[in-house]
């Protein structure tokens, strides 16, 4: 598709809706998926991108009957368009924060191994103390959450730390121990003094790749002296499935203590065991962008959350 030359005179400027449409197509490389992602009709999205090409005087996309590709110019300008949209989003966020704290939309990202166990506390807190806050929850794995935070798709994260991510500020909430979950008749079931070294030879069941809890469990096993060749079975996408596999006698697993009541409370085929002090543990925190316009608001939310979780089996961060 040849780009139309821009007439002489005052240059036109692209609109935000045109940039948003182009950024969506650049991400999805599919007009229907892009239109659905930003809530725009496909004809309107196609027209917005065509108008943007006309305005800029460059061809951004290569269209065929089967697929959409970015042109070389499109590759360069897609990154610039995302940057412009992120800056506009930051401007709106700052204006919103300036008007009043704890109002408007707050897009909270949560990892799957925290969401079912901590969200009831978070939602109750928001409902009771911040009724004007429009909390929108997104459950995703850590890498996706960090990407969403960096690109402005998410405002605040609730996840396990440390992250080691540049430009991210962590607001610690609490520490919680890991508990060994075993079949009911397992020799470690019911013990309160399990040494970490016991993990060396156990048939350990873990979550799939991408879950930070899997990485934490493997780190604990390495600290206990477990060798790389020791059997590790990965067959579960979530903790509920993992626990069912343990109940079926396929092995043992590690659960964060906040998950115990939900995941093991009704299963008579399971037993649990506590590790000897110091027990392996994880830290849960809120995470925000460095320099976030709502930083003071997020810090206040973290302080309120620390008080709210005191009834849970955790050690509140100071």
Automatic annotation (TrEMBL):
<keyword id="KW-0238">DNA-binding</keyword>
<dbReference type="Pfam" id="PF03466">
    <property type="entry name" value="LysR_substrate"/>
</dbReference>
<keyword id="KW-0010">Activator</keyword>
<dbReference type="GO" id="GO:0003677">
    <property type="term" value="F:DNA binding"/>
</dbReference>
<dbReference type="InterPro" id="IPR036388">
    <property type="entry name" value="WH-like_DNA-bd_sf"/>
</dbReference>
<keyword id="KW-0804">Transcription</keyword>
<keyword id="KW-0805">Transcription regulation</keyword>
<protein>
    <recommendedName>
        <fullName>Probable hydrogen peroxide-inducible genes activator</fullName>
    </recommendedName>
</protein>
<dbReference type="GO" id="GO:0032993">
    <property type="term" value="C:protein-DNA complex"/>
</dbReference>
<dbReference type="Pfam" id="PF00126">
    <property type="entry name" value="HTH_1"/>
</dbReference>
<dbReference type="InterPro" id="IPR036390">
    <property type="entry name" value="WH_DNA-bd_sf"/>
</dbReference>
<comment type="similarity">
    <text>Belongs to the LysR transcriptional regulatory family.</text>
</comment>
<dbReference type="InterPro" id="IPR000847">
    <property type="entry name" value="LysR_HTH_N"/>
</dbReference>
<dbReference type="GO" id="GO:0003700">
    <property type="term" value="F:DNA-binding transcription factor activity"/>
</dbReference>
<feature type="domain" description="HTH lysR-type">
    <location>
        <begin position="14"/>
        <end position="71"/>
    </location>
</feature>
<dbReference type="InterPro" id="IPR005119">
    <property type="entry name" value="LysR_subst-bd"/>
</dbReference>
């Amino acid at each position: 598709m040849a780009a139309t030359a821009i007439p002489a005179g005052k240059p036109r400027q692209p609109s935000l809706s045109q940039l948003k449409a182009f950024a969506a197509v650049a991400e999805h490389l599919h007009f229907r998926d892009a239109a659905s992602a930003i809530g725009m009709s496909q004809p309107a999205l196609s027209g917005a991108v065509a108008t943007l090409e006309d305005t800029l005087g460059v061809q951004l996309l290569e269209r065929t009957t089967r697929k959409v590709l970015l042109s070389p110019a499109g590759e360069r300008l897609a990154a610039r368009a995302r940057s412009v949209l992120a800056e506009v989003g930051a401007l709106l966020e700052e204006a919103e924060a300036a008007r009043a704290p704890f109002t408007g939309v707050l897009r909270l990202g949560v990892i799957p191994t925290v969401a079912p166990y901590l969200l009831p506390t978070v939602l109750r807190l928001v409902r009771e103390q911040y009724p004007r806050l429009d909390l929108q929850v997104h459950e995703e794995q850590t890498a996706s959450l960090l990407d969403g935070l960096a690109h402005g798709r998410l405002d605040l994260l609730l996840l396990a730390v440390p992250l080691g991510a540049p430009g991210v500020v962590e607001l610690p909430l609490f520490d919680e121990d890991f508990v060994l979950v075993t079949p009911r008749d397992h020799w470690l079931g019911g013990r309160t003094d399990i040494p970490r070294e016991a993990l060396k030879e156990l048939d350990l069941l873990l979550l799939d790749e991408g879950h930070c809890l899997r990485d934490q469990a493997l780190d604990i096993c390495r600290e206990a002296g477990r060798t790389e060749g020791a059997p590790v079975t990965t067959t579960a996408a979530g903790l509920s499935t993992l626990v069912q596999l343990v109940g079926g006698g396929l092995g043992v697993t590690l659960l964060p203590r906040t998950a115990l009541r939900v995941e093991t409370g009704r299963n008579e085929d399971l037993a649990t065991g506590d590790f000897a002090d110091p027990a392996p543990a994880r830290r849960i925190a809120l995470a925000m962008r460095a320099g976030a316009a709502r930083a003071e608001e997020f810090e206040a939310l973290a302080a309120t959350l620390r008080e709210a979780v005191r009834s849970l089996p955790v050690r509140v961060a100071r």
